[in-house]
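User: Structure tokens for this complex, please. No commentary.
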Amino acid sequence: MWDYTDKVMDLFYNPHNMGKILPNECREEETVAVGEVGSIVCGDALRLHLKIDKRTDEILDARFQTFGCASAIASSSALTDLVRGITVDEALQITNRNIADYLEGLPQEKMHCSVMGKEALEAAIANYKGIPIRPEEEDDSPLVCTCFAVSRGKIVRLIRENHLTSAEQVTNYIKAGGGCGSCLMEIDDLLAQVDGNKKTETPRKTELTASATFPSLHPLTNLQKISLIQQVIEEEVRPILALDGGDVELYEVDGNRVQVVLKGACDSCPSVTTTLRLTIEDKLRDRLQPDRIASDLVVEAISNPIKH
Amino acid sequence: MSVPKSETPSVIYLDNNATTQVAEEAVEAMLPYLSQYYGNPSSMHTFGGRVSRKIKEARANIAALLGAEPTEIIFTSCGSEGDNAAIQAALASQPDKRHIVTTQVEHPAVLNLCKRLEKDGYTVTYLAVNRKGQLNLNELRASLTDNTALVSVMCANNETGNIFPIERIGEIVKERGILFHVDGVQAAGKIPLNMKESTVDFLVVSGHKLHAPKGTGALYVRKGVRFRPFLVGGHQERGRRGGTENVPGIIALGKAAELALEHLEEENTRVRALRSLTYVRSLRDRLEQGLLTSIPHCQLNGHQSWRLPNTTNIGFKYVEGEAILLSLDRYGICASSGSACTSGSLEPSHVLRAMGLPYSVLHGSIRLSLSRYNTSEEIERVLEVFPKIIDRLRELSPFNSDEAEWLKEQSLVNSQ
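Assistant:
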């Protein structure tokens, strides 16, 4: 069961400001702006109604209709509490973090509920102003996650605003990558990109060490890959084979194909295939990041080239 | 029957496909073996031998529930262990065959194992189901090849309660001489099973689904079917499952199996029959009919008649499952949902998706699963509060009919 705060449960059971605002509830100088995000397919949707004083841009009233889980309903309710009585420009300063804070926190996996609130607010204000709030990302940037229709620009913004560091967090915040999972690599790349930009802005101490495990954000160079494989063979594979009087030598690395020459007792061992798969591949996989070269790594034994 | 209702908080427990209340009799049976009689059944002394006899008794009880011989029963720690042990044993005995047939709606214990086997070079056919959750037996027949090592099909589905026609499937499987594994976790104790007249080679049972404690289970392996242990160790379970026996758990499981068999016998006219499965079915039907007639825009997920007597799965449109569950929780009503939000993943139930149900139904699907411990007062209470909960959430929801403009527009965007 989710670890919801009392505030979330209170606003789920007793939400504030639910419903819509009808045009006939408005005076002449007032207008209703509507923002809609999500869909029944995605599992949550929010329709936000704002009553705005056209002269002062003040948000006089806010009401919501939400299809979704407890945290989606509580986030929507929180949003309406936050925007009442402030101007639309002030409202644009509200972040999903503010909504989560108002709820005294949300489980990581539910952060996307607060993001939905923020998006509905932006959509309503865009409708009020008659211009898109973020034309640069919504129009041009391509879809990264097709399961939940999330664009590249949206992901990059979210990474920046919330200082996200892993693809899992991106999924928690905006669902991207939470369906078929095929875009997780691309999300990793975006994380690396944002991280890289940040590094050039303000140099930070790097965590790259001489360790055999490289941070997953950067693709390995060929040289790094080869030296890593060499290191694994030297440190972990050869000592094991040596116990049975065998030995192995790295011969060639071609993409994800690792060719080795088996020597000593291994050379004539009938269970050579098993030895290879179980020992060398496993050790290499253990040491390499699972989402990178390791998953389709193939180790092949070749006959001793000297013999030919 | 005495049910320790007063000791448990006032909960209306309708989540018996997730886990069940441990039968009081099972607790009583196991308690001495947690304290006084701690002997090891393998020991060569009377103190241990006493324990060994109790295990024999438990084995006979489980065998009786399944219509099997005691020697065909291996005690395990859970349903997942049973599934893993059976599937791996079946494959290991036929190393040349590299094809497995299963269904899209299996429990993760089977599905995730199959996915892993695919990485190891096996080919897996995942049979589809129709809108009612039923298999097409012609599709099954067509999927079998000379390379097929195993067919693995659940007897009853945990989410919808749907029952697959195991024996008709078994006939097709046996025509080709293929091994047949059945995940019987949801079926055992709920519907009669008779391995003596069956085509099943491996049948898996989980203790905590039939009023035994968690951490118990049994695997039926047909006599003559080659088996090799999943958990390699000592000579326990005649060398088919290493590890010192979970003595108290096994004794409780035996007792629970004995009780389950008594309750299965619907002809039984003694007082107990009041709590038989006929009784559970009548409560379930009352609940289901009550909900379907008092709440608009909802539908039954699964097959009307090919179904466990204790399970109902209903999709409530325009509201989300977790919101329903937490609202029910406020009244102490325990249920579960196939919605995305309750699972921690962002995708709703794989079972309901395989059935091709619309998302409006998927996200608002609720499973209510009963046991013989439920009462008609409890069902009336649920019927009283449920419509109010759905009403309140629908008032909050921006959707209220399939014709809503926004809904159509959004689905269009998402289907592109």
